[in-house]
Amino acid sequence: MTEDANPVTRKIIHVDMDAFYASVEQRDDPTLRGKPLAVGGSAKRGVVAAASYEARKFGVKSAMPGVTARRRCPSLLFVKPRFEVYRAVSQELHGIFARYTDLIEPLSLDEAYLDVTDDIAGVGSATAIAQAIRHDIRTELRLTASAGVSYNKFIAKVASDQNKPDGVYVVRPGEGADFVAGLPARRFYGVGPKTAERMSALGIETGADIRDQSLMFLEQHFGKSAQYLYRASRGEDYRSVRSDRARKSIGGERTYADDLIEDGDLREALEHIIEIVWERIDRNSARGRTVTLKVKYADFQQITRARSVSPAIATRDSFERLSRDLLEALLPVAKGVRLLGLTLSSLESAKNSNDEQTSGVAEVNPVQESLAF
E.C. number, please (predicted)? Predict the structure, then answer.
């Protein structure tokens, strides 16, 4: 990684909507406001897609089984997700972003990075732009958002969570290393429960503890994540905001209330998933070379089967044929199936994508000089 002779400090905002799905439901249905709410399924194998802040006080959170959420909060209200509504609101949200910058990198329907180094709206500072965006979201969408403002993506994303909900947190150039040093190691993105446990066994609890380790030590214990951890623990992240960031895959999956074991039931379930996933593929005008079938059995054993073709899959017939072939190769199943999923990957639009997102440190022009925020 080479230093640029005259590095320019980026001004990056990470905007994250507050309890997005749940907040949209409470906005659209006044009877739900102020009540513990979960978007998702309450059935035996339903999963919480989002929880309102009233529900979070009881320990309800996304990806939690619905039965567990109900146990923690007996008064919890469940509503079915309305993804078409969330997508429409997300489009409005991006319209607001576009008033302030052309450099927008979506991460999901409800969060994005914005590079506001060029103040095209003449607002005056990155902090003022973040406040203006939040004001527009509140008045036009009747929702709230939190924002992190900093000189790189890693710190901006962590900062957006500091004053949630409905808050802003700013980490200026020169403050990043100290800010990161005080973070729990689990706040580093990519550090899941197992990695955090391994770190704890090594005496690593905070960002400062990570920073104290040599790159060689981190490579020995954390492999490909070492370079990212080494840089991030020093407040460094040289990735640019990529408005053209290509998605690497498109897919979908379903968990079933009752295990599927009959061939006919599995084939029927697969057809439903094909319908869902192809709609997403078609909507994104995506073309890919690899179809992957994901199967989770009743005992939670999970397997995947994939097949790649050339040229890329361009029609629904081709996608259906490969998907069905992958399932047929597994039939009959010896035990019940609780989940099926399909993914199209090796997308043509992602051919030239590099490892920037994985390494967290790619890019040759580091950005560390100080400018007004």
Answer: 2.7.7.7
Using CA atoms of 17, 19, 20, 21 in order, give the dihedral in degrees to the nearest 10.
Answer: 170
The CA distance from 11 to 119, in Å, is: 10
How far are the Cα atoms of 63, 99, 178, 343 from residue 271, in angstroms, in the given order?
25, 42, 52, 14
Instruction: Please report the pLDDT score of residue 368 as a whole number.
Output: 31
Phi-psi region of 122 (alpha: psi -120 to 50; beta: other; left: phi over 0): left
Is 282 annotated as a binding-site member?
no
Residue pLDDT, tens place only, 275-296? 989 988 887 788 999 999 999 9
Write down all domains in the chain, each with its CATH number in brackets: 20-81 (3.40.1170.60), 176-241 (1.10.150.20), 249-349 (3.30.1490.100)
295, amino acid identity = V
Is 16 annotated in a binding site? The answer is yes
Kindly indicate the confidence band of residue 7, based on its pLDDT and cuts at 50, 70 and 90.
Answer: low
For 196-240, write each residue's pLDDT tens digit. 999 999 999 999 999 999 999 999 999 999 999 999 999 999 999
Closest-CA residue to 254 (of 294, 224, 284, 285): 294
What's the CA gap between 276 and 107, in Å, rounded?
21
Q: Tokens at residue 303, please?
A: 């397997």
Q: Which candidate in 25, 105, 111, 236 is catalytic?
A: 111
Active site residue 111: yes
pTM: 0.72
Bridge partners, residue 17, by sequence: 145
Residue entry with tokens 């981190």: 218
